[in-house]
Design goal:
- Among the domains are: 3-70, Methane Monooxygenase Hydroxylase, Chain G, domain 1, CATH 1.20.58.1480; 100-154, no CATH class.
- It contains eight helices and no strands.
- By secondary structure, it is mostly helical.
- The chain has helices at residues 15-25, 30-38, 42-94, 100-114, 119-134, 140-154, 167-177, 182-186.
- Helix 1 packs across helix 3 (42-94), helix 4 (100-114) packs antiparallel against helix 5 and helix 5 runs antiparallel to helix 6 (140-154).
- It starts with 14 loop residues before the first helix and ends with a helix.
Length: 187
């Protein structure tokens, strides 16, 4: 209800006047206000207004609860961020500023450098390394990027194996190691 209308709220002694006043000042759409105006029975009109007031009150309570929850959540997140930054500053003052994630990233950079990746793969790996340095280690995305980069570094990019295409040899090995499976062996 608008604040301007609340000063005259107590001046309405008759239920019909109070119902009309509340109906006019509630946050209702045009059709709902029209329905209230068309209702001539004071009792029914008062009940309808009471229903709308109750509904508006519930919405207001829900909005306040959501706002309080969001504020609490934001406050907790801000507090954690502040404490982490404070902890980093203390570690830096003590000379312990290189944490586990920094060491992991440094080792990963070295491993990627030694892997001799193709140019496109190397540029992608460097881009992901840059992202990894900016993401907090507790983030789920951090572990995803870390695993991806470790896989890139572990793949044998410059090592090729020779293929053995001797089908007779494969048939002998299958016959020797597996009894039965004639249909599979024929394929």
């Amino acid at each position: 209800m608008p604040r301007a209308g609340t000063h005259s709220f107590g001046e309405h002694r008759r239920p019909s006047n109070l119902a009309d006043f509340l109906g006019a000042n509630l946050n209702l759409d045009v059709q709902q206000k029209q329905d209230l105006l068309e209702e001539l029975d004071v009792t029914k009109r008062t009940h309808r207004v009471l229903h709308h007031v109750s509904y508006q009150l519930e919405i207001s309570k829900l909005q306040q609860k959501i706002q309080a929850d969001v504020q609490t959540s934001i406050t907790d997140v801000q507090r954690k961020i502040f404490l982490r930054e404070q902890m980093k500053a203390i570690q830096k003052e003590l000379g312990e500023h290189e944490d586990a994630s920094t060491k992991t990233i440094a080792q990963l950079k070295e491993k990627i450098g030694k892997a001799k990746l193709p140019e496109k793969v190397d540029s992608e790996a460097q881009r992901e390394l840059g992202r990894l340095e900016t993401i907090h280690p507790a983030s789920p995305e951090y572990s995803l990027i870390l695993t991806y980069l470790q896989l890139l570094a572990d793949l044998p990019w410059n090592h090729a194996s020779t293929d053995n295409l001797d089908l007779q040899r494969a048939r002998r090995i299958l016959s020797r190691d597996h009894f039965g499976l004639e249909k599979v062996k024929r394929r």
